[in-house]
Amino acid sequence: MAWPLGGHAGGTVIPPEFDYLRPHSVSDAVTELGRVGEDAKVLAGGQSLLPLLRLRLAYPTALVDLAGVGELRGVRQDGDQLVIGAMTTHHEVLRDPLILRYAPVLAQATATVADPAVRHRGTLGGALAHADPAGDLPAVALALDAAFVIEGPDGRRTVPATEFFSDYLETAIGPGELLVEIRVPALGPEWGTAYEKFNRVAQAWAIVGVAALVRREGDTIAEARIGLTNMGPTPLRASAAEAALAGVSLHNGGIAAAAGLAAEDTEPSADLSAQPDYRQHLARVLTGRALRAAAAAAS
Amino acid sequence: MARIEVTVDGVRYVDEVEPRLLLVHYLRERLGKVGTPIGCDTSNCGACTVHIDGSSAKSCTVLAVQADGTEVTTVEGLVRDGELHPVQQAFHDNHALQCGFCTPGMIMASIDLLNENPEPTDEEIRHGLEGNLCRCTGYQNIVRAVRQAAGGGPAAGRSPAAEGSPAAAEVTA
């Protein structure tokens, strides 16, 4: 019998061939990655990797599946930080009481990722390691000043968000290394946060997204952090807008003026959804909305 | 080849599969569970939605080896003692389909939605089903069906996998 794809007596297969390994600890996973070499791919929830394999855009010799590594799941508090295991699913992030209390912007953005079935399997660590600039979570991690804990054959190292996202789909995770946890600051009630995403249809990628974190002192913005989704090959901070917001009153047009700077130093791409100038327009509009919503949520 | 043990619709299977075999192809071609259709092969349409340990998943975006050790429920496993699942019955009562291709995935996603949120508003129903496309655009009756199923009580949100299977037969490849 002729099969339409793959030509295989066992039935239809679409992805290329690979070995499948399922370690049960981080150290075993690192050992397997080292043994297979550079052509190994880490499988987390698979919601980005499997589409790439089906399209044959990736040809790994082996997948190292982290589903059996229990130590990579869950959220805990460590002093003034939250520590989120890389294999914590989007579904778990949305319901985690520590995240909802201390890092709600992560839940706000995660709620816009794909759809419920994808969120059941997709993971925070997978989304960050995949580093798609149109993904919602890299910009949030950048705005949160997250720290990325990476384990490799030489032990653990911690990389700040400013150094983690190095280029389009590229991160500081080296060959043979593994993202094990993401550390974010536990924000108090003086912080308000919001994520504004613009897309045309349900479950689509962001054409542009903006994560805003605002620390209020009365009617004044003491500090603001803004992360931009899909405004370049990596997630970006809207640094000019952030600088313009320090000490600004909530009532005299300062937010609108700062939002007007949100697209400074960005070089967004053109695609079927939007041209660069339209993306820059969206960044300014969405930054204004996100800042107002974030300021309203702070107490 | 990799060895998997998986329970599908109450029957335990021990099988050898290629690691690259997608779960949806395992279900359809190895087990004959053709009630789960393949729509888009791009994770968009949701036609192939099943439950893995009681949670919805798009079976074109899961490897069969990832289902090792889990309990999978397809639309074919919802009937209990000859009775349709409350969500199946509600889809029937409300004619919540036109061509029917999206229906298995819609039903599986609706059960998951009602498990999470037993009394959803219409807007919550529409958002909860955003991962499932009806290309006939017959959404009005789908929303009505989910609303009716919700009105019938918590059984509408129950996946058979969550209640434990009937004595599972074992099939070894």
From TrEMBL, chain A:
The keyword Flavoprotein applies. It comes from the Bacteria. GO terms for molecular function: carbon-monoxide oxygenase activity; FAD binding. Its EC number is 1.2.5.3. Residues 13-189 form the FAD-binding PCMH-type domain. Transmembrane segments: none annotated. SUPFAM superfamilies: CO dehydrogenase flavoprotein C-terminal domain-like (SSF55447), FAD-binding/transporter-associated domain-like (SSF56176). Keywords: FAD, Flavoprotein, Oxidoreductase. The keyword Manganese does not apply. This is Aerobic carbon monoxide dehydrogenase (Quinone), medium chain. The lineage of its organism: Bacteria, Bacillati, Actinomycetota, Actinomycetes, Mycobacteriales.
From TrEMBL, chain B:
Pfam families: Fer2, Fer2_2. Residues 151-173 are annotated as: Disordered. Its EC number is 1.2.5.3. GO terms for molecular function: 2 iron, 2 sulfur cluster binding; carbon-monoxide oxygenase activity; metal ion binding. Pathway: Alkaloid degradation; nicotine degradation. PROSITE patterns: 2FE2S_FER_2. CDD domains: fer2. InterPro entries: 2Fe-2S-bd (IPR002888), 2Fe-2S-bd_dom_sf (IPR036884), 2Fe-2S_ferredoxin-like_sf (IPR036010), 2Fe-2S_ferredoxin-type (IPR001041), Beta-grasp_dom_sf (IPR012675), Diverse_Oxidoreductases (IPR051452). Residues 156-173 have a biased composition (Low complexity). Keywords: 2Fe-2S, Iron, Iron-sulfur, Metal-binding, Oxidoreductase. Residues 2-78 form the 2Fe-2S ferredoxin-type domain. PANTHER family: OXIDOREDUCTASE WITH IRON-SULFUR SUBUNIT. This is Aerobic carbon monoxide dehydrogenase (Quinone), small chain. It comes from uncultured Mycobacteriales bacterium.
